[in-house]
Design brief:
The chain folds into two domains: about 60 residues, Ribosomal protein L9, N-terminal domain (Ribosomal Protein L9, domain 1); about 90 residues, Ribosomal Protein L9, domain 2 (Roll), CATH 3.10.430.100. About 40% of the residues lie in helices and about 25% in strands. It contains four helices and nine strands, in the order E-E-H-E-H-E-E-H-E-E-E-E-H. It has a four-stranded mixed beta sheet with strand order 4-9-8-6. Strands 2-1-3 form a three-stranded antiparallel beta sheet, covered by helices on one side. A two-stranded antiparallel sheet has the order 5-7. A hairpin with an 8-residue loop joins strand 8 and strand 9.
């Protein structure tokens, strides 16, 4: 089924694009949620206006979210966790835990659905993307370490992020 997107849809396209999607996805998700309409000749005439309106709306949202992106870009979060000798965690670090840590550290509200990672189940360092908008995707660093061990957080990354936020 061919649809004309009315809104930006993550991993599909931007508003005004014509995309071929599975019948069920279009009929059961995109159309009922008002994200798309069937790509009829009448709808195709609206595509240019939809693109222009969406570009204006996207720029407004990007300006608003840019402040949040600068605050959390380069942020480093450390999680102590119990782990086996091979480094596998007893449990996992979830997206909700990452959201709570961001809120506690910077006071910024982010939805767990905006965190672009699977639950972390091994010790180590991870780069996690936060999808604020289609264009703004800041990256944070998540360090998962063994309980009882001390981890030296890289001060340069924190200072650089804070200096960028102040400027």
């Amino acid at each position: 089924m061919k649809v004309l997107l009315l809104k930006d849809v993550y991993k599909l396209g931007r508003a005004g694009d014509v995309k071929k999607v599975a019948d069920g996805y279009g009929r059961n998700y995109l159309l009922p949620h008002g994200m798309a309409v069937l790509a009829t000749p009448e709808a195709m005439n609206m595509a240019g206006r939809i693109r222009e309106k969406a570009a204006v709306q996207r720029s407004i949202v990007n300006k608003e979210m840019d402040v949040i992106a600068k605050q959390i870009e380069g942020m480093v979060i450390a999680f102590p966790a119990r782990a086996s000798e091979t480094g596998k965690l007893y449990g996992s670090i979830t997206t909700q835990m990452i959201v709570d840590a961001i809120k506690a550290k910077k006071g910024v509200e982010v939805s767990r659905r905006q965190i672009d990672t699977q639950p972390l189940r091994m010790l180590g360092e991870y780069k996690v993307h936060v999808r604020l908008t289609v264009d703004l995707i800041p990256e944070i660093k998540v360090i998962v370490h063994r309980e009882g061990e001390t981890v030296v957080l890289p001060a340069k990354a924190e200072e650089k992020a804070e200096a960028a936020a102040e400027a």
